[in-house]
Amino acid sequence: MSRGHKTLITVSVVLIVAAAAVICAITMFPQSVADIINDEKIHQGVTISGVDVGGMTKEEAYEALSGALSAYPEASLLVVLEERSVSIGAGDVQASVDIRGAVDRAYKIGRTDKASPGNMEISACLPAGSSVMYQKISDAAQDFLAEKIDSSYELTENMLSVTVGRDGTYLDIDDLCEQVTARFFRKDYTAVTAQFVKDAAAQIDVYTIYREIKKEPRDAYYDVEAHEIVDSVEGIDLDVNAVLDKLENGTPGQKYFFEIYLVKPEITYDDVYNSLFENVLYEFTSDLVNIPNRTNNVRLAAAAINGTILMPGDEFDFNKIVGERTKEKGYKEATVYVGKDSVPEIGGGICQVASTIYVCTLYSNLKVTERWCHMYYVTYVPAGLDATIYWGSCNYRFINTRNYPIRIDTEQEGLKLTVRFRGTIEDDTYVEMVSETFDVDPFETITVVDETKPSDYKEETVSGYTGRKVRTTRNVYSGDGTLLSSTEEAFSVYRRRDKVITVGPPELPPSPPVEPTDPGMPPEPGQPPEPVEGDPDVDGAFGSP
Fold first, then answer.
1. Are residues 263 and 293 in the same domain?
2. Model confidence pTM above 0.90
3. Domain endpoint, select from 254, 271, 288
């Protein structure tokens, strides 16, 4: 074999080995090699405005799309819009697309963005409203577009308003632009027909409206559960035919008004009110002391109770109705009893409200379920007819044991507090309360000296209360004065508290005058030299010569 043949064989073997290596690499690492080969190409399955650019380089894709637009610069197609059409030319499309940007986005798929390669559509059209093509189609379509208006109605106290509706007509102009662009890219210049979308407006069923509006008059009545009078309701009617005519022949979007005819009820709020609470069962007025903070508290507590209605079997609960007495509610400090002391506290004085109600409760012959007497005797109600209140411990409660509801009215004017029970008088019975006082323990007066006060100071610092025990009896009589029942109502024990008068210390008698001493005379024998060191009231003290 010649040397030339050997060299040829050697080169052939090298080429075969190299080819085998490439085939082996492709076989063993097919994805890596494919990436190397297609690194500059757009992934398969990617289209731009309907044109498949998969497997193309960016420049190839750009040339394919832009070349289609420039091939026939005079080309145009029609966009059919109902009875109207608009012509779109190649120049319109060129001014309405961003081919370079679309190609860049297509190339990034599967590379710099997170989208996975596959069937992916990229639009070459500019954003809605920013292109010549979009504006042409939009201008031509305006006469066929309509915003949906739902038929509707509103009901006020004496008027029904009805808005006439119409169906909406919408057009996806972005999709039309995309269709036109795709056809130009494919050099297909057949007309594109717009597909208008109808959006049906909500309609009004007049008879449904009428059934909704039509109301029979409702008489007023008393709600047993809510403990309140439910007011009467006027009936409502209207001209149905007039509404039907406007909905059919009226201008879309226009609002039309129809008068509502009212039907009066037979029984009104006042009728029920007067029938339930036309009688005063009992009324009592107690006098207030002239202490502004205390009067303020009485007014707030009374106002919270005013108008309370109790149906038969309902229980009145003072603390529940009035609530906790706080500064936020406007209550102020006034005197209350704590232990044996009288101290200022928020809400002081409201016991007078409970006591005044207690008197009305007894004389209205209602059942008392909780009542506490005061620690000390009070004088603003008859003996033994007081009721003390303290949040969290002492309460006042009673039950309406009558057959009809009662209402508690309160009124505070000046230094007068009036409580009035209103309801229905069922019979001619009446109540008399009898109070018996015994075991009276008069208070004593104690004088206390306060060294910090001036000698002429004198003040009553603790008021005195006489201790006593009071038994109250409820006597019920018929109208002719016959005693029907006599029941011990309560046994009240009031503590004694001595009066304390605080005075200043007694005034000391004046010191006798001291005759002056001649400073030039020597001291008498046996007497200490004057002055005495340490006496600041004598000249020459503290060691002065």
1. no
2. no
3. 271
Q: Within this chain, do residues 309 and 379 fall inside the same structural domain, yes or no? A: yes
pLDDT over 90, % of the chain: 61
pLDDT for 115 equals: 64
* Joined tokens for residue 403: 């057959």
Which residues neighbour 12 within 8 Å (Cβ) at sequence distance 6 or greater?
none
Domain count, the chain: 3
- As a whole number of angstroms, the distance between CA 470 and CA 384 comes to 6
pLDDT at 12 over 80: no
Crossing angle of the two packed helices 240-249 and 206-213, in degrees rounded to 10: 140
Q: Which helix (H) or strand (E) holds 255?
A: strand 255-259
Other Cβ atoms closer than 10 A to 324: 12
The answer to whether residue 542 is domain-embedded is no
pLDDT value at position 208? 84
**Phi-psi domain of 82 (left: phi exceeds 0; alpha: psi -120 through 50; beta: other):** left
The CA-atom distances, in angstroms, between 81 and each of 92, 180, 237, 398, 544 are: 18, 14, 47, 82, 125
Query: What is the spatial distance between Cα 298 and Cα 314, in angstroms, rounded to a whole number?
Result: 24
Q: What are phi and psi of 455, to 5 degrees?
A: -65, -25
Count Cβ atoms within 10 A of the Cβ of residue 195 and give its class: 0-12 exposed, 13-18 middle, 19 or more buried. exposed
Domain boundary among 123, 143, 163: 143
Interval 340-394: pLDDT, tens: 667 788 989 999 999 999 999 999 999 999 999 999 999 999 999 999 999 999 9
Do 480 and 380 share a structural domain? yes
Instruction: Looking at the structure, tell me whether residues 425 and 486 fall in a common domain.
Output: yes
Q: Are residues 430 and 300 in the same domain?
A: yes
Please indicate, yes or no, whether residues 293 and 256 belong to a single structural domain of this protein. no
Same domain, 263 and 326: no
In a domain, 161, yes or no: no
Cα 218 to Cα 203, 233, 261, distances in angstroms: 31, 5, 15
Q: How far is CA 3 from CA 6, 8, 11, in A?
A: 5, 9, 13
Q: Which residues make Cβ contacts (< 8 Å) with residue 322, sequence separation at least 6? A: 301, 304, 305, 350, 353
Domain that holds residue 60: 37-143
Bridging pattern class, strands 120-122 and 46-48 = parallel
109-165 pLDDT, tens digit each: 988 766 666 688 999 999 877 889 999 999 999 989 999 998 888 877 778 898 998
- 217 three-class SS: coil
Give the model's pLDDT for residue 57: 95
C-alpha to C-alpha distance for 496 and 466, rounded to whole angstroms? 5
